[in-house]
Structures are given as structure tokens and as C-alpha cells.
């Protein structure tokens, strides 16, 4: 059985935001709504200062709090483990937005429904990479079937030390990072950037 996943190599990310823009275009997102974004901040002290770049998106948790929070079962996982929102069922209550520990959901002000990353399911189902992966100029994102040991994403998991955001929550994430400990050694800043949020 397939399980889609993504590995992001933070050593490769240059913070160009091509992922953010291509995702908005592919998914026709309204102003102020983002399925993926890149948070940036300065870390360290002069003269050893570095710019940290941390791409974020829905983690497509196997044990997803948003799925449990939805009172009308509008949020659920489809084959491959991709967590989606059925807009026809969604009542726009925002319970799933509040339940997400990753701030990866938003209320679409145009539709009054919840939006989020879908791993570009419309592309994945026909064998294409998500828009954010296919446009990454530094090849920092890897996507595929985590259950296929021959897939590029599985090889990245096998060959590298990977970690997910807030791993202590034990939600069995489908998005993990290479170099996360180094990026977060001083912690995330209080003020985070997420476009219109």
C-alpha cells in the first residue's frame, strides 16, 4: 500500500520561495492563503550569523488531530495517506484549523471553507510531483512512496538522519527534514512569517 511522503533537505534550501509561488499557481489559492511557505530568521551571534530557512506545509499526519477535530468528517485521509478536505462537507467551523499543531490550515475567505496542502493530489495521482517539488531550484524537496524502498524519498530517509517538526507529539508525520536539529538549535522565533497570517 502506498504512503506518500516528503523529505526536505534544509542544507539545500536557498529560500527562493519558488515552492510557495508554484503552489499558489497550481492550486489557484486566493490572496493571503498558502499551502506551503518558507519561514526565515537570523540565528547565531556576530560574526557567526546564519539565515535559517524552514519550508513548512501540512505534515499529513497518520494520527492527524485535524481529522479527529472535524465534527462533520470533512477532513480525512485518502489512499496514500494524503489528508484532504471535502469542501462540500466542510461547514467552515474552523475546528480543524485550531486543532492543527503546525498552523498548516487556513480559512479561505472566498469560499468560507478550510484549505491546506494536499501534496498536489491531482498531480500525484497521475504520477507527477507536487508543484513545490518540481519547481524547487536547489532540489531540496523529495517526494514519493515511503513504502517503496526503491523510491527516492525512501532512500533519503534510509541514508540520512531525518526528523519531523514537533516529533514529541508522536503523530507519525509524512513530512520530515534533513538538518532540522541544526536549523532549530536556538529554537524557532516567536514572530513567524506566513504570508497573510
Automatic annotation (TrEMBL):
Keywords: 4Fe-4S, Iron, Iron-sulfur, Metal-binding. It comes from Tissierella carlieri. Residues 4-33, 48-80, 81-110 form the 4Fe-4S ferredoxin-type domain. Transmembrane segments: none annotated. This is 4Fe-4S dicluster domain-containing protein. InterPro entries: 4Fe4S_Fe-S-bd, 4Fe4S_Fe_S_CS, ET_IronSulfur_Cluster-Binding. The keyword Iron applies. It comes from the Bacteria.
Amino acid at each position: 500500500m502506498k504512503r506518500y511522503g516528503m523529505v526536505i533537505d534544509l542544507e539545500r534550501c536557498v529560500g527562493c520561495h519558488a515552492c510557495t509561488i508554484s503552489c499558489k499557481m497550481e492550486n489557484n489559492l486566493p490572496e493571503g492563503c498558502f499551502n506551503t511557505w518558507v519561514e526565515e530568521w537570523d540565528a547565531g551571534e556576530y560574526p557567526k550569523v546564519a539565515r535559517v530557512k524552514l519550508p513548512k506545509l501540512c505534515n499529513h499526519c497518520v494520527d492527524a488531530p485535524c481529522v479527529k477535530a472535524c465534527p462533520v468528517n470533512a477532513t480525512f485521509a485518502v489512499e496514500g495517506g494524503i489528508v484532504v478536505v471535502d469542501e462540500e462537507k466542510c461547514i467552515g467551523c474552523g475546528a480543524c484549523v485550531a486543532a492543527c499543531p503546525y498552523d498548516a490550515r487556513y480559512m479561505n475567505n472566498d469560499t468560507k471553507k478550510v484549505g491546506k496542502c494536499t501534496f498536489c493530489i491531482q498531480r500525484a495521482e497521475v504520477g507527477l510531483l507536487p508543484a513545490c517539488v518540481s519547481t524547487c531550484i536547489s532540489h531540496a524537496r523529495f517526494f514519493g512512496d515511503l513504502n517503496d524502498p526503491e523510491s527516492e524519498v525512501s532512500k533519503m530517509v534510509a541514508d540520512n538522519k531525518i526528523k519531523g517538526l514537533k516529533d514529541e507529539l508522536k503523530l507519525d508525520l509524512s513530512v520530515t527534514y534533513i538538518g532540522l536539529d541544526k536549523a532549530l538549535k536556538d529554537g524557532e522565533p516567536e514572530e513567524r512569517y506566513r504570508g497573510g497570517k
